[in-house]
Write a structure and sequence with these properties.
This protein is mainly alpha-helical. The chain is about 65% helix and about 0% strand.
Length: about 180
Amino acid sequence: MTVERNRAEQVELYGEPLADVFARLTAGLHLSQAGLARAIGMSPPMLSQLGSAHRVKIGNPAVLHRLEALQALLEEVEAGRVGEDELPARIEAVRDSSRTWSTSRLDLAATPAAGTDRDVVEATTVRQLLRAVASGADLRRAADLLHDDVPGLAELVRTYGLGSPEEAAAHLRRHRELF
């Protein structure tokens, strides 16, 4: 069946079906499907087609970036770093963002602007690289698998792959003497 094949392709591309991603974001960020569509810059019908696996792929890199930004925001909410009262402004900031990725999903020009803390720029670049090769769910699973045997590497995957740019920059500053 086409829907099953499309859902399998979404798992290949995004690490999970988009319906699961959308459901987690709408519930965790208190958004309707129309609100989620607005926040990422997609029409509600297209969001519905992707969620029902009638379509496979998000074709617009800016939309994909905003979707990732909302996932990162949800991770911050779940970790207690962003309060419910901050959500509307943070979601609006995501909606207003226009940053895009290159076709390789790693665009060094898309890192923070010149004059930004060098550690934040470097940490953001590492995060982009990790997220280009693995989904957030895959990074979380890898960190969990590494935790007992190689805790330092598990911390790197969690901090740079799943943490905020500020957390990763702080980690980088603490460990800069290693290189």
